[in-house]
Amino acid sequence: MDSSRQTRVRQAFDDFFATGEPKSPSWVLDLFGHTASTVPAYRDLLAENGIEPASITTFEDFQRLPLLDKANYHERYPLPELCRDGSLTGCDMIAVSSGSSGRPTVWPRALEDELHVARRFEQVLVDGFGADERTTLAVVCFPLGTWVGGLFTQACVRHLAAKGCPITVVAPGNNKAEILRVLPELAPHFEQVVVLGYPPFVKDVVDTGVAEGVDWPAYRIKLVLAGEVFSEQWRDLVSRRAGIADPVRDVASLYGTADSGVLGNETPLSASIRRFLADRPALAREVFGDPRLPTLVQYDPASRFFEVHDGMLVFTADGGIPLIRYRIADEGGLLEHGALLELCARNGFTPPPGPELPFVFLFGRSLFTVSFFGANIYPENVAVGLEQPGISEVVTGKFVVESVEDEDRDRRLRITVETAPGATADAAEVAESIRAQLLRLNSEYAHYVPAERQLPEVVLRPAGDPEHFPTGVKHRYTRRA
Questions:
Q1: d(Cα 295, Cα 257) in Å, to the nearest integer?
Q2: What predicted TM-score, i.e. pTM, was given to this entire model?
Q3: How far apart are CA 468 and CA 398, in angstroms?
Q4: What is the largest CA-CA distance in the chain?
Q5: How far is residue 462 from each of residues 17, 372, 393, 406, measured CA to CA in Å?
Q6: 3-state secondary structure 425-443
Q7: Do 2 and 89 touch, CB atoms closer than 8 A?
Q8: Which strand (E) or helix (H) includes residue 315?
């Protein structure tokens, strides 16, 4: 029996149940020192780079530490050596990443990690949805099993219930038939229903429910989404179909990662600013340095320490595998709370009140782009083309983008689109809609791609097509030769 672990867990619960004292600004240096002294893999990496841990005493010193990533750290060392004391016994759960980059990764977890991340769910469900005062049914629609999303989400929401919130969790996972079976039976007993899942799957559940006569407005639906960037048109479309009257307050995105749980979350403040910038592309480019609209969330600097290196987000966080200056391959940046609100004020916009926390924005991972005539094709640009009136009713929103060669070795942009169950789509109309949005949103596409090649080849596939849209796995929007 490990009595020291009992102490750690009790302390974690005490911190979670209490209002909490602000963490010392030096927590990042403290975490570094503790990791250097207890984690064999990190100690070896420092020695290899000629770094004496005792020499790291300031944030300037800290920023000289090597950047970590999966290739140079996680995949290089045996799993136990990445954990404290070179042992897995300090962790009580193993999670697996979704393998979006093609190779699933194992991440050990501990109950303390869940309690830490549960505060992000608390900010969404309690501060945003009032789940401390309203009886709430939380429906976990992330995949269950070894995959990180489902079980981790279920645990965090249950911790909120243990804290005293009137929340009940049901976890059908990504089984659409089971979701639509339990909702009519359970939802009438609660004041609101929160559906948590990946955006395309949640949309599929809502659309299927509409087709089957589900009375979504009667369930007083809220949505918690994670895993990918979605447009404000998408937020409005799904809200309309689910009977959500206030998309800003009742739909929240999480910045989650298998590597370290939830790093940040949308608030009504961040969502309203994003919607304001979505209608002003020139201003959005000024703020984000890119014509694309990223996910914009707030984060707690006492929980996650962010840096930006060569346009990529780098974070430091404790966990089953402590990560010091970890490069996750997400393109993005940081914005100070006061500076962003000042910019809004200068442009005549007053967002709703929200937490005085800094912002992090992310475009998603650079490996999810396809190059076509030198232009980077981003899935979020294609998605807007499928969200237009007349198109959104006949497709699910899932697609796969590829740059392919024909017999003459000419390049074509092929987009395979999933049609909605029972619907008939016109490939030519879909292609025209996608082209219009690519030309509007992607200046590289408009200037690099010859006019005669700008109309994509659209291939329609039925819902659940096993090659392009298999059920039960996280969807991938791009393919590369």
A1: 14
A2: 0.81
A3: 9
A4: 70
A5: 48, 26, 14, 24
A6: CCHHHHHHHHHHHHHHHCH
A7: yes
A8: strand 312-317
Contact 277, 283 (CB under 8 A): yes
| Nearest CA-CA partner of 258 in 98, 468, 119 | 98
Token pair for residue 248?
Answer: 């800003």
Do residues 400 and 416 touch, judged by C-beta distance below 8 A? yes
Per residue of the chain (481 residues), give pLDDT as tens: 667 788 888 888 888 888 655 677 789 999 999 999 999 999 999 999 999 999 999 999 999 999 999 889 999 999 999 999 999 998 888 888 755 444 568 899 889 889 989 999 999 999 999 999 999 999 999 888 877 788 889 999 999 999 999 999 999 998 889 999 999 999 999 999 999 998 878 888 998 899 999 999 999 999 999 877 788 988 998 999 999 999 999 999 999 887 888 999 999 999 999 999 998 989 999 999 987 789 999 999 999 999 999 999 999 999 999 999 999 888 899 999 999 999 999 999 999 999 999 999 998 655 577 878 767 788 888 999 999 999 999 999 999 999 887 765 567 899 999 999 989 999 999 999 999 999 988 877 887 787 888 999 999 999 989 998 987 666 788 875 5
Tell me how far apart the alpha carbons of residues 44 and 35 are, in angstroms, rounded to a whole number: 11
- What is residue 80's DSSP assignment? G
* Token pair in block for residue 200: 């395309």
The 10 Å CB-count burial string (b at 16+, else e) for 82-113 is bbbeeeeebbbbebebbebeeeebebbbbbbb
> Which residue bears the tokens 């992000």?
120
Please state, in angstroms and rounded to a whole number, the distance separating the CA atoms of residues 171 and 30.
37
Within 13 A of 62's CA, how many CA atoms are on the CB side?
A: 20
- Dihedral of CA atoms 246, 248, 250, 256 in degrees, nearest 10, equals 160
DSSP 92-140: -EEEE---TTSS--EEEE-HHHHHHHHHHHHIIIIIIT-TTTS-EEEEE
Q: What angle do CA 394, 396, 398 make, to 5 degrees?
A: 130
Q: Identify which of 219, 218, 220 has the alpha carbon closest to the alpha carbon of residue 249.
A: 220
Which residue do the tokens 């979704």 mark? Answer: 98
